[in-house]
Structures are given as structure tokens and as C-alpha cells.
Amino acid sequence: MILDSLHVDPEVFERRTGWAIKPEGxxxxxRCVPLPAAARAGGRVDVRALAERLxxxxxxxxxxxxxxxxPEAGGRALADAGAPDFALPDLRxxxxxxxxxxxxxxxxxxxxxx
Length: 114
What we know:
By secondary structure, the chain is an alpha+beta fold. It has helices at 10-17, 47-54; strands at residues 2-3, 7-8, 20-22, 25-28, 31-33, 45-46, 58-61, 66-69, 87-89, 95-97. The chain has a three-stranded antiparallel beta sheet with strand order 1-8-7, with helices on one face. It has a three-stranded antiparallel beta sheet with strand order 3-4-5. Strands 2-6 form a two-stranded antiparallel sheet. β7 (58-61) and β8 form a beta hairpin. The protein is elongated, with a radius of gyration of 18 Å. It starts with a strand and ends in a 17-residue tail after the last strand.
């Protein structure tokens, strides 16, 4: 979920993540996670509190003023957005290392036929 604010409308949050904000907390299916009252102030929800309680990774791109909120990770959230270095052959068969792009934003797309 891409955000331009850390305070979002509860209906938008539910539509985009499946987590409904109810009086008992954030609920999805038969699971409910209690939220502090401050997380639901002014008719909006504080994404930082939700991310912490639901185990959803959140990262900020300061230059664009945007945040990315990942799906709940079941306790397996990444500690950072750094990728390990690896090497693969490019289209000419020459070795290409991910580290050659260090400092640039990179989108990795993986696909498998199975």
C-alpha cells in the first residue's frame, strides 16, 4: 500500500489491506488485534501504530514524501530493505552483480513457470 500520509481513512485501509478498524481493534476474519485509542484519533488511523501491531513493514521515501506499507508478515518482517548481493548472467552471458546498482532504487521482479 503506497501512502502519502501516515494517517488514513479506516475504510480505505480495510479496502486495501483487508483489516477492518473496529471498536475492539484491527480485525481480519476471526482475528482482532487491540489498538491504542491514540491510533484512532480524529476519524483516521495512525499507520505507524497499525504497522507495529500487525507486523507490517513500513518504509519511507523521503525524497518523494511517500511511504510503502507491506502486508502482514506473521513475524517474518524484513529488518531493512537491503538486498544481498548476487550475480547472474546478463543477455550477453556476462556476469551482472546487483551491487553494481548500489545507491540506486531497484525493483526486482521474479517469475517462475511452475
